[in-house]
C-alpha cells in the first residue's frame, strides 16, 4: 500500500524533548536490543525469546523497516492502540497512526531514515474516547555496518503520570508563592552553601533586590560584617538531631540602615544525614532591640550625663583586672571630685548644677581614649578606668599622669552656663594596678584616698596613691616646670663636638644642647629631652637650638680657621612635622645671614620613616630655597633598608656609635659597619662614624673607606670657649688628636 500524498513538514514548536525516568527502557538499551536482534537471527521477527522479554516491558516497542512497514511490536504497543500486537505487524505506519498523526510525525520519520536519532512528545487521544495520554516517543535508527539505514525502532512511553505530577507540583509551588508573598516575614530557601534557591517579595523589598538578582547569590552580603562569623558558627551547629537554629543578627537593608533580624533556620537533610537545603524565616526585631538597649541604659547608664553608672563600672573593673592579669599590662583608676561643687549648686541652683555636670562629662570623655571607661560615681564624683598602659610601670605611670593632667586642665576651663561664666576645678586621685594584686574594692579605696590627698593638698591637682610613684610623678612635673623657667632665663647652652676627615682635618661639629640648672647643675639631655618631647616644650627648645646654631655659624664665618666648618643640628620629630618647618629654617638662615651649606640637619630613622613623602617634599623645598644638607642620624639602629634609603633625599648617613664601639672585637659589628659604608658609597652618600674613641677603630674605618669621624678620640663635646680654643691651637700640631 502506498503512503498517502502528504507534504513534508518540519517539527512544530509544541514538540519538547524531555528526560526519561529510571523505570523506562532507554534509547541506548533499545539500541542494544537492535544488536541482539541482528545477532540472534537474520530477521528481527524470528526471535521468540526477545519477543517474550519485550512483551513484559511497560513501554511500547516496535520496529519499522525503511518502507515504513511494521516488522514487530510488543504487547504494550497493541494495548495502546486497542488491538492485538499481531494485528499491527505488516501494517504501514500511516495505517496505524492515521493521516493527521502521521502528518505530525513525518518530519521525525524522515529524520530517523536519515540515521538521525529523534525524540518528541505527543498528546494522543485514547481509542475508547477517554482522556488523552501524554506520550514520549523515540525513533532510533537501525544502521548497518555499511552505514545503510534498514529501518528504525520506535520507543513510546506513557508519561501522563509524570506530567500530572509536574502539574500538581507546579500548582503547589504557585500556592506556596502565593502564601509566602502575602507574609510580612523575610522568607528564603538556600542550598547548604548559602546560595539562594528562592526568596519572597518581602525579602526583595527589604534588601532592594529583584528575585532574579538574588537567586544564585549568597546571603553573606546582607549580613552586618561584625556578625558574620557568629552567624556562620551558629549555622554550623545545625544537624538532623537539631535541625532548627534561631539566630538574631544585624543586616543591612536596601537603604543602608542596620536592622536587627530574628531568623529561624530549618535544615533539610538527605538520607545520609548531609545538609542539602536551609529554609529561613526572618522578622525585623529592631524595635525590641531598641527597647532592650533602653532597659540596659536604665540599668547601666547615668540618666543625667549618659555616662556609665557605678554598677557598670564595677563590672568593667572585674573584667579589666582579669585582662591585666593575662597580659601583665598596667591600668589605672582615676577618681575625680569637683572642687566646691556644693557652693555652685547652692548659689546657681540645681538646674545649673546639672548642666555643669553634663558639661564635665563631655570634657572628660574628650580627654580619654576609646578603650577607657568613664563613669559617674554619684553626685559630683566621676571615675575613669584607663586600660592597656603597657608593661613598664614607669611608662604606665607617666601615661596615667598625662591623662589625669589633661582632664584636670580641661575641667579648670570656665563653663558657660545660662550665659554665665562658672569657674570650677577638680581634684584627681590615681591608683595604678596590674593583675589581681588588689581587689576591686581595694583599688577603688586607694583611688579615693589619693583623691582626698589631692583635695588636702590644695585642690585642682593630681595625686597618686603610691608614695614612690607620687614622688616620681612630682619629680617629672617639677622637671617640666623648671624647663619652662630654663627657656625664659636662658639656662641652656650648646656644646660642640668636633668632626674630622681622614687626614684628621676639622670639617665641622655637632651642636649638642646642655642644661645648666642653677641649683642642680648640669642636667643630662637623656633626662630632660623625653619630658620636653611629651609636651610642646620640645618645639620651643628646638627653635632656640636652631637660632643659636645659626648665630654661631655667623660668628665662625669671620674666622679663617672656622669659616668652612659645617654645623650639624638635631631635629626632633615634632619639630620636623610642623607645617611651617621649612619656613623656620629659611628664616633663621636669613636672620643671621649665613651660608646655608654650613648648616646640616640631622634626622633620626624614626622621623624619616614616619612619613617619607613629607621628608622628600621638605628636603626638596630646602634644596630649592637655600641648599641645606640632610643627614640620617643613628643609622642601623632602626629599620634601615635599601628601599627607603633609595627614596630618601639624603646627603649623609651617620653610623651609630653602638656599632663603632666593638668593630675591632665583634665580627658582626665589623660586618655591619663595612656594609653601611659600602651601601652609602653605592648611593653616592657621604658617611660619618660617631663614637670613635681608639686608634684601632679609626684604622678600621679608614681601611674600609669611611672618610669622616666624630668621637672622644678627637674631642668630647665642648662649650664654645673651649671649642674655639681648640680650633685656634689647631695648626701648631700635625695631629688634632694630640690637642685633645
What are the key terms here?
740 residues, alpha+beta, Beta-Lactamase, Alpha-Beta Plaits, 4 domains, 8-stranded mixed beta barrel, 5-stranded antiparallel β-sheet, 23% strand
Describe this structure in words.
The chain is α+β, with helices and mostly antiparallel strands. It has 4 domains: about 25-160, PAS domain (Beta-Lactamase), CATH 3.30.450; about 185-290, PAS domain (Beta-Lactamase); about 300-465, Reverse transcriptase/Diguanylate cyclase domain (Alpha-Beta Plaits, 2-Layer Sandwich), CATH 3.30.70.270; about 490-730, TIM Barrel. The protein is built from 27 helices and 27 strands. α18 runs parallel beside α20 (about 580-590).
Strand order of the largest sheet: 18-19-21-22-23-24-25-26
CATH class of the largest domain: Alpha Beta
Total strands: 27
Q: In which range does the helix fraction lie?
A: 40-55%
Number of helices: 27
Give the N-to-C terminal Cα separation.
135 Å
> What's the CATH H-level superfamily name of the largest domain?
EAL domain
Q: Could you tell me the CATH topology label of the largest domain.
A: TIM Barrel
* Assembly category: single chain
Mean pLDDT score = 83
Return Rg in Å. Answer: 47 Å
Percentage of β-strand residues: 15-25%
Question: So what's the overall shape?
Answer: elongated
Structural class: alpha+beta
Low-confidence stretches: 5-25, 40-46
CATH architecture of the largest domain: Alpha-Beta Barrel
Amino acid at each position: 500500500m502506498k503512503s498517502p500524498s502528504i507534504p513534508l513538514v518540519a517539527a512544530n514548536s509544541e514538540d519538547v524533548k524531555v528526560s526519561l525516568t529510571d523505570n523506562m527502557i532507554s534509547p541506548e538499551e533499545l539500541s542494544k536490543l537492535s544488536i541482539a536482534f541482528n545477532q540472534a537471527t537474520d530477521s528481527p521477527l524470528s526471535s521468540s525469546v526477545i519477543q517474550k522479554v519485550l512483551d513484559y516491558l511497560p513501554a511500547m516497542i516496535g520496529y519499522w523497516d525503511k518502507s515504513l512497514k511494521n516488522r514487530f511490536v510488543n504487547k504494550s504497543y497493541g494495548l495502546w492502540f486497542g488491538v492485538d500486537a499481531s494485528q499491527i505487524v505488516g501494517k504501514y505506519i500511516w495505517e496505524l497512526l492515521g493521516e493527521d498523526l502521521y502528518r505530525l510525525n513525518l518530519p521525525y520519520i524522515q529524520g530517523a531514515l536519515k540515521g538521525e536519532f529523534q525524540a518528541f512528545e505527543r498528546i494522543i487521544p485514547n481509542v475508547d474516547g477517554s482522556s488523552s495520554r501524554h506520550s514520549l516517543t523515540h525513533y532510533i535508527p537501525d544502521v548497518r555496518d555499511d552505514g545503510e539505514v534498514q529501518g528504525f525502532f520506535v520507543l513510546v512511553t506513557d508519561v501522563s503520570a509524570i506530567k500530572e505530577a509536574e502539574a500538581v507540583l507546579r500548582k503547589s509551588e504557585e500556592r506556596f508563592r502565593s502564601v509566602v508573598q502575602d507574609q510580612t516575614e523575610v522568607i528564603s530557601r538556600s542550598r547548604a552553601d548559602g546560595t539562594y534557591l528562592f526568596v519572597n517579595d518581602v525579602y526583595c523589598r527589604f534588601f532592594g533586590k529583584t528575585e532574579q538578582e538574588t537567586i544564585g547569590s549568597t546571603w553573606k552580603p546582607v549580613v552586618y560584617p561584625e556578625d558574620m562569623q557568629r552567624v556562620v558558627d551558629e549555622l554550623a551547629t545545625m544537624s538532623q538531631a537539631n535541625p532548627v537554629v534561631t539566630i538574631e543578627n544585624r543586616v543591612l537593608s536596601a537603604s543602608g540602615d542596620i536592622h536587627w533580624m530574628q531568623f529561624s533556620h530549618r535544615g533539610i537533610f538527605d538520607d545520609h544525614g548531609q545538609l542539602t537545603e536551609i529554609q529561613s524565616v526572618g522578622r525585623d526585631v529592631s524595635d525590641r532591640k531598641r527597647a532592650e538597649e533602653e532597659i540596659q541604659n536604665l540599668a547601666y547608664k547615668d540618666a543625667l550625663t549618659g555616662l556609665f553608672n557605678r554598677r557598670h563600672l564595677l563590672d568593667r573593673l572585674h573584667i579589666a583586672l582579669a585582662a591585666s592579669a593575662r597580659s601583665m599590662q598596667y591600668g589605672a583608676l582615676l577618681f575625680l571630685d569637683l572642687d566646691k561643687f556644693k557652693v555652685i549648686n547652692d548659689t546657681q541652683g540645681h538646674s545649673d548644677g546639672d548642666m555643669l555636670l553634663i558639661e564635665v562629662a563631655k570634657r572628660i570623655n574628650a580627654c580619654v581614649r576609646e578603650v577607657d571607661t568613664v563613669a559617674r560615681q554619684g553626685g559630683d564624683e566621676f571615675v575613669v578606668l584607663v586600660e592597656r598602659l603597657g608593661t613598664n610601670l614607669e611608662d604606665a605611670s607617666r601615661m596615667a599622669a598625662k591623662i589625669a593632667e589633661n582632664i584636670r586642665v580641661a575641667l579648670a576651663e570656665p563653663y558657660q552656663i545660662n550665659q554665665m561664666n562658672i569657674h570650677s576645678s577638680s581634684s584627681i586621685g590615681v591608683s595604678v594596678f596590674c593583675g589581681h594584686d588588689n581587689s576591686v574594692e581595694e583599688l577603688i579605696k586607694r583611688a579615693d584616698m589619693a583623691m582626698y590627698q589631692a583635695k588636702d593638698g590644695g585642690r585642682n591637682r593630681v595625686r597618686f596613691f603610691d608614695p614612690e610613684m607620687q614622688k616620681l610623678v612630682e619629680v617629672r612635673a617639677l622637671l617640666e616646670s623648671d624647663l619652662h623657667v630654663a627657656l625664659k632665663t636662658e639656662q641652656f647652652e650648646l656644646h660642640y663636638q668636633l668632626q674630622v676627615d681622614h687626614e684628621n682635618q676639622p670639617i665641622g661639629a655637632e651642636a649638642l644642647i646642655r642644661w645648666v640648672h642653677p641649683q642642680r647643675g648640669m642636667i643630662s639631655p637623656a633626662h630632660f629631652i623625653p619630658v620636653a618631647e611629651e609636651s610642646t616644650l620640645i618645639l620651643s627648645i628646638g627653635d632656640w637650638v636652631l637660632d643659636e646654631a645659626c648665630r654661631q655659624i655667623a660668628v665662625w664665618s669671620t674666622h679663617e680657621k672656622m669659616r668652612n666648618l659645617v654645623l650639624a643640628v638635631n631635629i626632633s620629630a615634632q619639630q620636623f612635622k610642623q607645617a611651617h618647618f621649612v619656613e623656620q629654617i629659611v628664616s633663621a638662615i636669613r636672620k643671621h645671614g649665613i651660608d646655608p651649606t654650613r648648616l646640616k640637619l640631622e634626622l633620626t630613622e624614626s622621623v624619616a620613616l614616619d612619613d617619607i613623602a613629607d621628608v622628600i617634599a621638605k628636603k626638596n623645598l630646602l634644596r630649592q630655597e637655600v641648599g641645606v644638607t640632610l643627614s640620617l642620624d643613628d643609622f642601623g639602629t632602626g629599620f634601615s633598608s635599601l628601599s627607603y634609603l633609595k627614596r630618601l633625599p639624603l646627603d649623609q648617613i651617620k653610623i651609630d656609635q653602638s656599632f663603632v664601639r666593638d668593630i675591632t672585637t665583634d665580627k658582626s659589628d665589623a660586618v655591619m659597619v663595612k656594609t653601611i659604608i659600602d651601601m652609602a658609597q653605592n648611593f653616592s652618600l657621604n658617611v660619618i662614624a660617631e663614637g670613635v674613641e681608639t686608634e684601632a677603630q679609626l684604622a678600621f674605618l679608614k681601611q674600609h673607606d669611611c672618610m669622616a669621624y666624630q668621637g672622644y678620640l678627637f674631642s668630647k663635646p665642648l662649650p664654645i670657649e673651649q671649642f674655639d680654643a681648640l680650633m685656634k691651637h689647631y695648626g701648631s700640631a700635625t695631629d688634632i688628636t694630640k690637642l685633645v
